[in-house]
Amino acid sequence: MIKSNVALIADNYGKALYRIAQKNNKVEEVFKEAVFLLNEVLQNKKLQLFLKGPHFKKHEKHDFINTVFHDKLSLITKNMLHIIIDTKRTFYLNEILREYIFLVNLASGFQKGNIYTAVALEEEEKKKLTSAFEKYTGKKLKIKFFIEPWLIGGMIFKSGGFLLDQSVRGNLKRLKYTFGMLEDADVKL
Q1: What pTM, to 2 d.p., does this model score?
Q2: Which of 48, 75, 106 is the last residue of a domain?
Q3: Which residues of the chain have pLDDT under 70?
Q4: pLDDT tens profile 107-116
Q5: Does 189 reside within a domain?
């Protein structure tokens, strides 16, 4: 499989950050910082524009990192940000952080998953679903739950490349497709 330029850059920088964090026994600390940064960068449009925009000078970005994240980030994470600024890779910051998070989860045996339901679930129902899908996939899962009323009922589970659609909407779509195939084949019911 051929990786895109973005994927290659994220892969290289994410792996490098992981190796350095691992060498310094700071994997979990850097993981928390990566999650924090990812949330900060994704939530703050002005911060995204500043870090990713070419109209600000490198020294301004370095000063910003040193001032704003002075006591919030470890030296490893700050150095990674400085390297990304120096190599003009700030445009790829989100992907690099996601790659690092992915590598930490992979090394610890975790896999991310999402469950979409039409209505909110009780905590006990969430635990049962998580347990059932962990048994099914054979992996420890970190599942996020989302409410999507358009599903009508049932649920959709996504994890990695796996998709299980047991929603009412999905079942209706499959029925419509099946009946369409029968009509196209001139099958009489």
Answers
A1: 0.64
A2: 106
A3: 1-3, 42, 181-189
A4: 888 888 899 9
A5: no
- Tokens at 151, concatenated: 């599903």
Q: Cα separation of 129 and 143, whole Å? A: 9
Domain identity same for 100 and 119: no
Q: Final residue of a domain: which of 106, 126, 144? A: 106
Strand 140-147, strand 110-117: pairing: parallel
Same domain, 12 and 90: yes
Are 80 and 11 within one domain? yes
Structure token digits, residue 138: 């054979």
